[in-house]
Amino acid sequence: MKTCLLLCVALVLMQLQYGFSQQQPKRKKDPGDGRVRQGGKRVKPRPPKTKDPGVRGQSLLTQVLDKGHFLRLGNTTVLPSGRSLELRCKGANIGWTYPSYLDTFNDSRLSTNQIDKYGQLVLTAPSAADTGLYSCWVNLCDGRECSVDIDRNYSTYIFFSDKDNLFVPSLIHFELVYLRPDRSAVVPCRVTDPQARVSLHREVPPEEVSTNGTDVTFDPTRGFVLQSPGPELQGVFYCRAQSRGAPQISTKFQLLYVEVPSGAPFVSLQTSPDSVADGDSMNVTCTVLGEPEVPIDFNWIHPNPEPSRPVQTHSHWRLVKRGLGHTTRVSQSVLSIKDLSSRDYGSYICKAKNKYGETAVATDVHAG
Ligand SMILES: *[C@@H]1O[C@H](CO)[C@@H](O)[C@H](O)[C@H]1NC(C)=O
Ligand SMILES: *[C@@H]1O[C@H](CO)[C@@H](O)[C@H](O)[C@H]1NC(C)=O
Ligand SMILES: *[C@@H]1O[C@H](CO)[C@@H](O)[C@H](O)[C@H]1NC(C)=O
Ligand SMILES: *[C@@H]1O[C@H](CO)[C@@H](O)[C@H](O)[C@H]1NC(C)=O
Ligand SMILES: *[C@@H]1O[C@H](CO)[C@@H](O)[C@H](O)[C@H]1NC(C)=O
């Protein structure tokens, strides 16, 4: 609650200030206004080669400037906060993605519309917190079936610069960052000015983390990226940024090192009901708890090579959140037998396999 209060106050403050010196994007002639200039000479525009709106590979994402001028947006765009933004993307059926922050608050400042031959996204009074990736993409529809044309997905990362918020405001004031030896970690101190000089600091003992080398790099759209970090990077850290004015400090980050034994699945087997007799139904459930992105393949061995009736198996998985940043994948395979007979008693083996290895676990089922 306190977090929201602070943030909301910050947002209101940001919206109150307009017009400090800003980089104005260069203006380009709207290609639709008849003639374009090339190297100082007036030339007739070439007729479009196809009906396809725009050339593949070239962004169709434009920013509407005033008086019918458009600016084609590249990978990154720096815009002043406070000034309303209109983006357009050519196409009859345009979809948009934008920072999830704007969805979280179900923000009425953002609206998207489809107007005849283009899609439109309007964001009024953007603030530093709206900094992020904005994409438009073309939906291909065939009757009622629609799909994303992945070749026509255009993105720009927009920095809403704000000299009072060199860091993109964070909802979390003390963020946990998990370090794992087998992957990179990110200290998410994103900035609103890509030119800002940013450094990473340990709180106790106070020291700056050297970025001279390849292990720690700064990406203004993500923060500090730590390649295969070790336990020596544990502790409380913050980022410091400086642009033209006084340096600014980010929120704090607690870096925690977690040993993750990436290995064969850890499997448990359970039979229900606990005891069975002839004619009963039975489920044998094989469960694996593991990393969210590691899929599991299940295989069963029935005690009898020729069971009396067909045996059904069914696999599924779900993700379970275990507090900040930790997610476990619960994968299960259920073997179901109806109308048990003597041929179904014996040892059931569940084999669970992931990219690291295979584990087999057995359970005995007998009448009684
Ligand atoms: C823009 O992004 C594309 C695709 O990610 C990349 O190939 C290209 O080099 C980037 N251009 C610039 C100027 O960063
Ligand atoms: C978001 O806001 C709109 C209108 O303000 C409302 O109709 C909609 O139900 C809201 N959605 C959520 C998830 O709060
Ligand atoms: C378009 O590309 C962006 C950036 O790669 C991605 O975040 C977004 O999900 C993509 N949109 C679709 C619909 O695939
Ligand atoms: C980076 O480190 C190397 C050796 O570790 C040193 O020679 C070089 O001067 C350093 N560069 C900077 C910019 O600190
Ligand atoms: C076996 O599992 C199915 C589906 O999960 C369930 O409907 C059924 O009641 C279970 N049977 C027993 C004996 O636990």
UniProtKB/TrEMBL annotation:
The keyword Cytoplasm does not apply. This is Platelet-derived growth factor receptor-like protein. Residues 1-21 form the signal peptide. Gene3D superfamilies: Immunoglobulins (2.60.40.10). Residues 22-56 are annotated as: Disordered. It is found in: Secreted. GO terms for cellular component: extracellular region. Forms a complex composed of PDGFRL, TNK2 and GRB2.
